[in-house]
């Protein structure tokens, strides 16, 4: 099972792949394995019960990709470490993806040494922010930068905000927080606010998103500081979680809590007044909160159904894989049955819609003409990672459809392609694809106009064309993202995607 995942982004790092190889070799050497890993898609022995493989690929645009895979067979089970590094031709944009697959019954996986090495050796970023190897002390002038980092739609890792209970001992507090968050290096950023910076932070955000002095709060991606209900996702580290950490860190935290309680008692009267005001505000919004709660429950039920469907699909894919491997063994091709597939960078699904829009250039026959801002807004929702991956799957299916239509004489439309996808081509569920909209939508100008989407003048002189064909990316109570496209392969050799965003209006909306 997936025990650990880290995705690091870099800017202006032309030696990204070289540096990553050096850190990989140092990690292997530390584990007393053969660190001179050769370029080979076939696994080779690099230690006792340890196999390793490495591939390197340069595409037509001169972008480079390196993937290394280390499989360690231990008495407790099999550990698989997969490192994928991708860099643009000039090195201005790249990323490092590390997955650690642990034995099924292993449980929690600590941050691996390789991840720590990579974070310390590279100018890694999470969104627009450099990924800190250690918690950073923040004073008043830099508080806005912390808030901007929290709401950054490109952020995909955790963020921790710790409010120091004292000014003179803030370094001690930072050390305690660092000990507490030791296993988040490589996957999260952490900031330690001075007391005055805490006041500034709490002034800039809604009351529900504020941070209490002497506590550490976790902020998930997609923070919406204007939505009080969003605050429920961003939890404080609990007493139980603190007790799991080192006793020294807990003693430091307890010291901070005692000082905070003493100071809080002195401010009791003013605090009581603020609480009364806040209670009146919450009472005024209780009806809206109830509606939001019902919608959230509906969203949860939909997500649970989709997860169940995805699990069924995964089990069916594994069953087919076992069958095909067995048949290859029967016909004497066991070597093929267990060979690692050739590296294709497009098989790595984007985590966010920021990633997806950046990677559209990887598609040969698909062009996006829509409003990127609408697409990026999807990252504000809790299911955005799953939605981005499914949208990418649909785009790859369209790209493969266009490729075989233009180069191999496939005569059907997209629906026919999805119903009977040719071998080695990507596909998408035909049940989640519609070749056009209903007659009501096509005849009603209020419903048709939003589906009149941008295209080049060579396709339509007016610059807009009706895109009734669409993929149903997911079912959601309030969003239900859709991808609308126009198949113009016969005219311009391109499929135009004019919209990726929430469900467009219907007569029942």
Give a written overview of the molecule.
This protein has helices at 16-30, 113-121, 143-151, 170-180, 195-204, 239-243, 247-266, 268-284, 286-330, 334-337, 353-358, 372-376, 384-407, 414-419, 439-443, 445-448, 489-492, and strands at residues 2-11, 40-47, 50-58, 64-74, 77-87, 93-101, 125-126, 129-130, 136-138, 158-163, 188-193, 216-219, 366-368, 433-434, 452-454, 464-466, 470-472, 482-488, 494-501. The protein is of the alpha+beta class. The strands form 5 sheets. The chain has a 6-stranded antiparallel β-sheet, covered by helices on one side. A 5-stranded mixed β-sheet has the order 13-19-18-17-14. Strand 10, helix 4 (170-180) and strand 11 form a beta-alpha-beta unit. Helix 3 packs across helix 5 (195-204) and helix 4 packs across helix 7 (247-266). The two termini are 41 Å apart.
């Amino acid at each position: 099972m997936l025990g650990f995942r880290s995705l690091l982004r870099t800017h202006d790092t032309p030696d990204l792949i070289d540096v990553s190889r050096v850190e990989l070799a140092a990690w292997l050497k530390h584990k007393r394995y053969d660190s001179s890993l050769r370029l080979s898609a076939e696994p080779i022995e690099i230690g006792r019960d340890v196999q390793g493989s490495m591939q390197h690929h340069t595409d037509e645009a001169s972008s480079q990709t390196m993937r290394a895979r280390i499989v360690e067979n231990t008495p407790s089970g099999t550990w698989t470490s997969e490192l994928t590094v991708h860099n643009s031709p000039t090195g201005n944009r790249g990323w490092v993806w590390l997955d650690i697959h642990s034995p099924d019954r292993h449980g929690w996986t600590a941050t691996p040494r390789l991840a720590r090495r990579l974070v310390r050796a590279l100018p890694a970023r999470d969104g627009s922010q450099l990924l800190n190897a250690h918690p950073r002390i923040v004073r008043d002038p830099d508080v806005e930068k912390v808030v901007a980092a929290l709401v950054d739609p490109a952020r995909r890792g955790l963020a921790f905000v710790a409010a120091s209970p004292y000014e003179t001992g803030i370094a001690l507090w930072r050390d305690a927080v660092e000990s507490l968050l030791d296993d988040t290096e490589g996957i999260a950023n952490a900031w330690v606010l001075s007391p005055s910076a805490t006041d500034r932070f709490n002034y800039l955000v809604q009351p529900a998103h504020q941070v209490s002095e002497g506590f550490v709060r976790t902020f998930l991606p997609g923070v919406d500081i204007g939505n009080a209900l969003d605050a429920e996702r961003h939890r404080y580290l609990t007493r139980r979680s603190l007790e799991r950490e080192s006793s020294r860190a807990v003693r430091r935290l307890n010291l901070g809590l005692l000082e905070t309680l003493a100071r809080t008692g002195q401010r009791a009267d003013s605090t009581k007044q603020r609480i009364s005001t806040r209670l009146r505000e919450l009472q005024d919004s209780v009806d809206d909160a109830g509606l939001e709660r019902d919608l959230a429950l509906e969203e949860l039920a939909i997500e649970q159904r989709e997860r169940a469907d995805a699990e069924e699909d995964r089990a069916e894919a594994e069953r087919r894989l076992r069958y095909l491997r067995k048949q290859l063994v029967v016909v004497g091709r066991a070597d093929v049955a267990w060979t690692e597939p050739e590296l294709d960078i497009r098989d790595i699904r984007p985590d966010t819609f920021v990633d997806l829009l950046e990677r559209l250039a990887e598609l040969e026959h698909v062009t996006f003409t829509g409003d990127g801002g609408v697409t990026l807004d999807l990252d504000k929702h809790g299911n955005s990672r799953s939605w981005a991956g499914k949208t990418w799957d649909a785009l790859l299916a369209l790209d493969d459809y266009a490729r075989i239509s233009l180069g191999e004489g496939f005569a059907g439309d997209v629906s026919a392609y999805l119903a009977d996808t040719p071998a080695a081509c990507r596909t998408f569920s035909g049940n989640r694809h519609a070749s056009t909209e209903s007659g009501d939508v096509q005849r009603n100008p209020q419903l048709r106009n939003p589906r009149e989407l941008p295209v080049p003048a060579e396709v339509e002189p007016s610059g807009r064309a009706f895109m009734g064909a669409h993929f149903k990316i997911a079912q959601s109570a309030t969003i239900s993202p859709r991808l609308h496209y126009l198949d113009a392969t016969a005219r311009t050799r391109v499929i135009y995607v004019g919209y990726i965003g929430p469900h467009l209006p219907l007569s029942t909306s």
